[in-house]
Write a structure and sequence with these properties.
The protein has 224 residues and is α+β, with helices and mostly antiparallel strands. The chain has helices at residues 58-66, 88-92, 113-124, 150-165, 193-196, 201-217; strands spanning 11-14, 17-20, 49-55, 71-79, 99-106, 132-133, 136-137, 143-147, 176-179, 183-185.
Length: 224
């Protein structure tokens, strides 16, 4: 199963007629894993803060964080590469070094950085998959925490170690932890993609279930 940002996957137009294709996927959709609270969390943060995550296709990651209480905004974009102001096509080629990324603005008085990490590691993606998520393969779909402060780095390091030592997952966490150097917002048609295209077969199969898992596992964090 693949994505196409300019037309909905699963739809093929021939001679003016639109035909629905039937998808088969070798990988079954995964169920979110409930996680413990971070033993270490940020302290003393005041005012709007920024958390930046990469975990596969940014459509689903962005949608998850848009539904977390305390999140002011979630923007899809690109980070971690060398090309200045890359396009979606360039990033998709895997040649720029960027990952599909989401920048999250949040109120630490409502939701802490540690709780955002918990949602990211549990609901938004599978942190044990290397350079892939679900049907998407390549370094542009790698799992990364781009920390913006020294405290975020320490909190993320501690949480990854906590989850690994607790054997929460059957495989080690492969999430990279690197400083954020530059975040480039993605093209406008990628923003809030799930809300605009809930009938997209890729979204319906891979992303909408993440919102169901967020509501099921963390109802107190969920915002309709």
């Amino acid at each position: 199963m693949t994505r196409d940002s300019n037309r909905r996957p699963g739809l093929l137009t021939l001679a003016g007629a639109t035909l629905m294709l039937t998808f088969t996927c070798a990988c079954a959709r995964e169920t979110a894993v409930p996680l413990p609270d971070p033993a270490r969390d940020e302290s003393g943060a005041r005012g709007e803060q920024t958390a930046v995550f990469a975990g596969g296709c940014f459509w689903g990651v962005e949608a998850v964080f848009r539904h977390v209480k305390g999140v002011h905004s979630a923007v899809s974009g690109y980070a971690g590469g060398t090309t200045v102001a890359p396009s979606y096509e360039e990033v998709s080629s895997g040649s720029t070094g960027h990952a599909e990324t989401v920048s999250v603005k949040y109120d630490p008085a409502v939701v802490s950085y540690g709780q955002l990490l918990k949602v990211f590691m549990s609901v938004a993606h599978n942190p044990t998959e290397l350079n892939r998520q679900g049907p998407d393969h390549g370094t542009q779909y790698r799992s990364v925490i781009f920390y913006t402060t020294a405290e975020q780095q320490l909190v993320a390091q501690a949480y990854i170690a906590q989850l690994n030592s607790g054997h929460v997952y059957p495989a080690p966490i492969v999430t990279q932890l690197v400083p954020l150097s530059r975040f480039y917002p993605a093209e406008g048609y990628h923003q809030d993609y799930l809300a605009h295209h809930p009938d997209n077969p890729y979204v319906a199969y891979n992303d909408l279930p993440k919102l169901d898992e967020l509501k099921r596992l963390y109802p107190d964090r969920y915002r309709p």
